[in-house]
Amino acid sequence: ALGGARVTLTDLLSCFPVTADNLKANGFAMANGAAGAELNASHWTQQEGGGTIQMCALDWCKPDFSLLPGPFDVILGADITIYEDRHEALLQTLLQLCGPSTVVVLAHEYRGGQTTFPFGDMAAAHFDVQRVPCAEALQECNIVSEDVALYR
Fold first, then answer.
1. Is 144 in the same domain as 86?
2. InterPro entries, per this entry (predicted)?
3. Are residues 91 and 151 in the same domain?
């Protein structure tokens, strides 16, 4: 959003206070004057660059898509594939939010000796999944087991 883009952030409603603090720390101000934790959606603006952020509550297991302005050009997610019992709900949510040209980028850190990517295998029935190893780029951060997957 700092470059003038329109961005929609989603998370569980219980996470709104932390997200709101992060937005404030990055120069965004709430446009509608209400506290983000009190709403299912809030709008934020950034003075420089003209970007806007809409923050919407989204629970994959009980999704309400009425506040989401999809389909989206790009969907970014980090560490959202950890819980295998939520993979089906996540997949159905992505299918609802994606259009024909949407690119989904998910970052996933392999933990505890994990060598497979069950969500990617499940999603391959609906998306062209491309794993992009990025260990070399992350070595300086002492992260050695992270991959990014592109879903088209």
1. yes
2. Methyltransf_16, SAM-dependent_MTases_sf
3. yes
